[in-house]
Amino acid sequence: MEVIHTVAALRSRLADEHQVALVPTMGNLHDGHIDLIRIAKPRAACLVASIFVNRLQFGPGEDFDRYPRTLASDCERLAQAGCNIVFAPDEQEVYPEPQEFTIDPSHIQNELEGAFRPGHFRGVATVVLKLFNMVQPQIAIFGKKDYQQYLVLKEMVKQLALPIEIIPAETVRAPDGLALSSRNNYLSPEERLEAVSLYQQLEKIRNAALAGRRDFSALESEATYWLNAQGWKADYIAIRQAADLRKTDVSSRKLVILGAARLGKTRLIDNVEVDLS
């Protein structure tokens, strides 16, 4: 496996590759990231994983400075998983001058995560488009744990007519159901035991919907109240249409239930899908 740090070296290495898959990451890899590698591996002759902590998608007071940088151990895991190239540029390489041209996603950027993290999806879309231009892959893999991000990037590729196939990957969970996330490392042992409650509340809503409940606002409020009563600070619990995250109506059948909440100093997000057909 090769580790490459500059765009020029990367383009030179990829010049003769005709089927490239990209797995963009911010590093501090866990089994969920490795699952993305597993999904990408048989789909391309050359598999590139990028590792870059993108300042543009962090808001004021968020954890950009303390986000774990673990390049050496990440590279070991990627090599074992069969990755061909790790592209690990520094900030000057990605942003050699102030990034004044940015990508403004659709209505979706201002809802849910976007409402609580203004500018987040602008930063995500901008850096991913730059990575697409640097790597020029035919395939890119994104996990559905960040469901809203996945939809934003899929729509960006569609509307900008990029020749890239976006492949979603299901959320990878710990045995108790907690969605794997680099930010889980921030949890204390006691918080880690409690953290699965977010997923459990989303599953409770899913089961209620499958059992016939359609009072979605009440279901959202019940889960929010329960989490806050347990010491969480819920940002949102929302039931939306899976295709575009628009609000549901009586005809909605394919839904996604999304949640974001703070436990202590750690902000966790999760989602579960449900088909009411």
What's the short version?
This protein has 277 residues and is of the alpha/beta class. It is built from ten helices and nine strands.
Structure description:
There is one protein chain. With 277 residues, this protein is of the alpha/beta class. It has 2 domains: 2-169, 3-Layer(aba) Sandwich (Rossmann fold), CATH 3.40.50; 182-271, Pantoate--beta-alanine Ligase, Chain: A,domain 2, CATH 3.30.1300.10. The chain is built from 10 helices and 9 strands. Strands 1-4-3-2-5-6 form a 6-stranded parallel sheet, sandwiched between helices. Strands 7-8-9 form a 3-stranded antiparallel sheet. α6 crosses α7 and α9 (197-210) runs antiparallel to α10 (216-229). The longest helix is centred in the middle third of the chain and has 16 residues, at 120-135. The model has no long low-confidence stretch (mean pLDDT 96).
Can you tell me the residue ranges where pLDDT is under 50 for at least 5 consecutive residues? none
CATH superfamily of the largest domain: HUPs
Radius of gyration over all CA atoms, rounded: 19 Å
Mean pLDDT: 96
Strand order, largest beta sheet: 1-4-3-2-5-6
- Categorize the overall geometry: globular
Main sheet summary: 6 strands, parallel
Number of domains: 2
Total beta-strand segments: 9
Q: If helices are DSSP runs of H or I spanning 4 or more residues, what is the number of helices?
A: 10
What gap, in angstroms, lies between the N and C termini?
Answer: 45 Å
Q: Which CATH first-tier class of the largest domain would you pick?
A: Alpha Beta
| CATH topology (fold) name of the largest domain | Rossmann fold
What structural category arises from helix and sheet content?
Answer: alpha/beta
Helix content percent band? 25-40%
H/E order of the elements?
Answer: EHEHEHEHHHEHEHHHEEE
- Beta-strand content estimate: 15-25%
Q: What would you say the CATH architecture of the largest domain is? A: 3-Layer(aba) Sandwich
